[in-house]
Write a structure and sequence with these properties.
Layout: H1 10-24, H2 32-35, H3 51-57, H4 61-72, H5 76-85, H6 92-108, H7 111-125, E1 129-133, E2 139-143, H8 147-168, H9 176-189, H10 199-211, H11 219-229, H12 235-250, H13 254-260, H14 269-284, H15 290-300
Antiparallel strand pairs: 1-2
Helix pairs in contact: 1-6, 1-14, 4-8, 4-12, 6-7, 8-9, 8-10, 12-14
């Protein structure tokens, strides 16, 4: 006799729907672009169960997203692009969903799908241009395609996802160097010719931005920090988010925390974060995910 699975408690079901709406743009997690990952005629840019697959499937990504936004904000050019062209205040979920779509499609989609998604992002970036005051106090023009800005965004993203997984995830196949080298493919897709390939090189490039004075804190940075500290989430989502924000802050070195004007919480953040991530993992359940769609494509192709 077949027995049915016990029903999911209503609070967990509601949390799951909210999480999946934020992450995939769909309360079931199966937005059209996620379903499309099962299609395509090649294996994609990243190996199954390799470094990028492992890190981007981990619950630490929930911390990494916050960390990446905080770190990216320190570059006045990158922040000008967000401030002038993004609707992150009016539609924070929409902006998050757009970023997640790019990450998921590149990581798990076919090369054709990844190239199309990169082109979609590139078409938007062609319109993003303006001026900003650099860390040296001089005004300068920018476009979203400037190599220096693309390099900074790639470094901030890679560092955020690596550090968050190291703090709150499991082992990475091949270690940290393997992830940095693996995700360098995303940098090259964004026309960055020489992204860092090792953890040491990644750290050196980040330190270089700091040492050269290219990063700065100003009222715009403070505004972003205030918004990210208390976004418009309520209930369980609000409580969980506050823990994840503290978790992101805890992964920064003191030099970066000082520049952002934020302090590490005195509460047991690591323990609370692991609890929240376990609850989140349960809420997301065992339904199909992007990597499951990718495996369907790989098996169909005999890969």
């Amino acid at each position: 006799m077949v027995t049915s699975s016990p029903p999911v408690p209503a609070p967990i079901a509601r949390l799951r729907a909210k999480l999946l709406t934020a992450l995939a743009g769909d309360p079931t997690g199966m937005a059209p672009y996620v379903r499309a990952i099962a299609e395509g005629d090649d294996g994609g840019y990243f190996v199954e169960n390799g470094p990028a697959w492992t890190v981007h499937a981990g619950m630490g990504t929930l911390v990494a997203g916050i960390r990446a936004l905080l770190l990216q904000a320190l570059h006045p050019g990158a922040l000008a692009g967000v401030h002038d062209w993004s609707r992150y205040r009016e539609d924070p979920i929409g902006r998050l969903t757009g970023t997640v779509r790019w990450v998921i499609t590149l990581t798990y989609g076919s090369r054709t799908q990844a190239d199309a998604e990169t082109a979609r992002v590139g078409r938007f970036h062609q319109r993003v241009r303006g001026t900003y005051v650099g860390g040296d106090g001089d005004a300068r023009g920018y476009t979203a395609e400037d190599r220096d800005l693309v390099r900074w965004v790639h470094i901030a993203f890679t560092d955020a996802f690596l550090r968050s997984h190291q703090a709150y995830g499991g082992p990475i196949p091949g270690g940290a160097d393997a992830y940095v080298a693996d995700w360098a493919t995303a940098g090259r897709l964004m026309r960055l010719p020489d992204p860092p390939l090792t953890e040491a090189a990644l750290r050196a490039e980040l330190e270089g931005f700091l040492d050269r004075g290219e990063l700065r804190r100003d009222e715009r940075v403070d505004d972003v920090v205030r918004f990210l500290r208390k976004p418009p989430f309520t209930g369980l989502m609000g409580v969980a988010y506050r823990v994840l924000f503290a978790a992101a802050v805890a992964t920064f070195p003191p030099r970066v925390r000082k520049m952002l004007g934020i302090r590490r919480s005195w509460l047991p953040v690591k323990t609370a974060t692991r609890l929240i991530l376990r609850i989140t993992e349960r809420a997301l359940g065992s339904g199909p995910r992007a990597q499951d769609m990718a495996r369907l494509r790989l098996r169909r192709l005999g890969l």
